[in-house]
Amino acid sequence: MSVTLAPYPLPPGWNLRPARPRSRLLTSVLVVCCLALSAALWGAVVGEQTVLGTIVALVLLGFLAVVAVGGERAGGERALPEFVNALALTRAETRPADSWVSFFRQRAPSLWSCLWLLGGGLVTTVACGILIVRCIVEGGQSLLVLVFLLPLTLAAAIVALAGANSLAVRGRARWFARRPRGLVVGRSEVTLYSFDRGDDDRSWPWDAIVDVVPGGLVDARRGNTVPELKLRAAGADGSVDEHRVPVDSLASHAWLVYVVLRFWREHPEVRDELDTSAGQDRMASWMAGLTEAADARRVS
């Protein structure tokens, strides 16, 4: 597949990172470190070293949180949109306007993230619970340690609960009876299947879309911009309204969503590609170009 140059530059401040899977070596190192800390924690618990166990539990919990947050950073999403029959994304109540569409699926928590939080949180919670019981039984100076253990145990339980909730969200997103949520781009229109249960699905014919506007608030901690995308669409009364496209919640790179919407809005003569695999090939080529640009910037 030849690489097609990106038709539009990356919006200012948007994260430019190669879209690659996590390194197996890095994953192995992280898992080994986690297991080592868990072993040290249980060694302290078995050895009745309450203070040491509290310190190790704190380090382990911080390690879990840092890795989980770092692994879910926006900007490196690598999934291409799925080329699916439009009827599969509906409730079969009405005939869809398009036959085949490109579906940008809502990003579900990765299995790695779910198991990482759930497993590490459970280990830390159980260990801290044992240490709390020991502090109460022994009394004396151990009660001072109890002051630190109580909030630590609560934090560990929250981490485990977050992992369990993420696993449930992942399961619901993959359940065949539940209509997936995300952005649908077809030859005739663009549809946003609601992310929140209280929202209605929204569709905009290409002719009604006036502009595609990138933006976003600057994240001072990371030093870049959290991607944001808005569709300006004309209503039935002629007024122009702005609609937010949650690109930060999609499994595909935010830049790709921006380019897809802008390109086919400005080039109606090639919208028929969206009804064939030619559109998918074009998107894959754009993502290959983005990765090459990111590699070139890193080398230079």
Alpha-carbon distance between the termini?
26 Å
Shape: elongated
The secondary structure category is alpha+beta
Strand content: 15-25%
Q: Average the pLDDT over all residues and give the rounded result.
A: 79
Number of helices: 6
Main beta-sheet annotation: 5 strands, antiparallel
- Uncertain residue ranges: none
Give the tally of β-strands.
Answer: 10
Strand order of the largest sheet: 1-2-3-4-5
Radius of gyration: 24 Å
Approximate helicity band: 40-55%
Description:
The protein is of the alpha+beta class and 300 residues long. 47% of the residues lie in helices and 16% in strands. It has helices at 24-46, 50-71, 111-138, 142-173, 254-266, 277-299; strands at 82-85, 100-105, 182-185, 189-193, 202-205, 209-215, 218-219, 224-225, 228-234, 240-245. A 5-stranded antiparallel beta sheet has the order 1-2-3-4-5, covered by helices on one side. Strand 7 (218-219) and strand 8 form a beta hairpin.
Sequence-ordered SSE layout with sheet pairings:
Elements (H helix, E strand, L loop, with lengths): L23 H23 L3 H22 L10 E4 L14 E6 L5 H28 L3 H32 L8 E4 L3 E5 L8 E4 L3 E7 L2 E2 L4 E2 L2 E7 L5 E6 L8 H13 L10 H23 L1
Antiparallel strand pairs: 1-2, 2-3, 3-4, 4-5, 6-9, 7-8, 9-10
Helix pairs in contact: 1-2, 1-3, 2-3, 2-4, 3-4
Notable characteristics:
about 15% strand, 6 helices, alpha+beta, elongated, about 300 residues, single chain
How would you summarize what this structure contains?
It contains 6 helices and 10 strands. It has 300 residues and is α+β, with helices and mostly antiparallel strands.
